[in-house]
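Customer ticket, subject: "Can you confirm the structure for ATP-grasp domain-containing protein?"

Message body: Hello, I'm evaluating your service for our small team and ran a test protein. I'd like someone to confirm that this is what the system normally returns, since I don't have a reference to compare against.
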Amino acid sequence: MKHGMSNYTIIVDPLSTGQEYPAAFREAGRLPVAVLSGAEPPPAYTASWHPGDFEHVHYFTGDVQALAEELRQYEPEYLIPGAESGVELCDQLIEFLVPGTGNVSELASARRDKWEMAQALAAAGVPRLRQFRTADPADAEKWLKENDLLGRRLVIKPPKSAAGDEVYVVFEDGDWRERFDRVLGRTNKMGLTNDAVLIQEYAEGTEYLVDTYSVDGKHALVDVCRYTKVGRGDKIGIYRRIDFLAEDDPEVQALWPYTEQVLDAVGIRIGCGHVEVMMTPDGPRLIEVAARPAGGGHQMVSELATGDNHIKRTVAHRVRGEVRDGFDLVQHLRGIFVIAPREGYFRNREVFDGIDALKSFQWMKILYDEDAVVPETVDLFTCLAWVILIHSDPATLDADYHRVLEMEAGIVIETR
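Agent reply: Thanks for trying us out. I re-ran your input and got the following:
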């Protein structure tokens, strides 16, 4: 691929952490152009939409070819998605403007729809969790019976969602139909109507986030984290903490060959990969994969832990032609997601006074003001605050982590 020919970089849905792209490309000498996949950003991303950051803004109104013709004036060499909501449109525009420079077009749906992901893994012979997509509860019951999953623990979620949105567990004695009906037909935080439901066998084990960057089908690690998540009632996947791991960590080495197989199976050949993998007693199993940068503030913590991140890796490759193989863990970092136990009025921000005296304290962002109405934390979008701890001593990290949890336990939220 040639580099430096066009002065413009086109970003489709530069939202969530994709909002960091315009400044990064400007610093590298490129002028950012935004394409929004709708008239407005999805509800979850509204606060991250900054049209003033771009030289030009274009809106998709339903005609991909017409939009491509609008964008042709920029003579793009490539297009990149900034957030999950822009992945599909970005793939479509690439085929009109710069065919052959993106991921495998025939597998586009497998990079966005969790059911299609599973089918792509099956076609490639990659181990996967048993799952089924349908809008018909009768078909769902038939599949559950055929796979001996009736009365077993299940996960129910939309085929297209992100950040733990509407992900439910059905316990052995639970009613899967109630959760099925709860998901079907609702509008999720991506702004999409759930026209079907994904039913999945429940995976026991440790979950990992594996961030990657690919060039011409060769995959490299950007960072790897071990997730800790918690559940509340039938809601699972509530983020509790992340711990960054070194590339030579045995846990990472056990995950990486499988992750490469997943990337190949869904046709990721160039750009960012964001892969969630569960290490089960039967080996690694995919939870989901996305062809875009990690969201939820992850670019900042990735840079603190490794000196690099998806955004920097993308700009280095796209503008300067630089390709990096792997990463270095430069600091031991733990990210904490502060959980609100219920919806109501947040009465005591001062509960976190003194947190900056912790030996490992690096940064904190409380997302709500005193007396503001806060939502119950049920996913990544609804956490109350973020805390970052960094220290060379694991014992210090653990002690400070538990001190943060003690502060969290003192949060006062008054119901309406």
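A couple of notes from the result: The longest strand covers residues 218-232. The longest helix spans residues 250-265. Feel free to reply with more questions.
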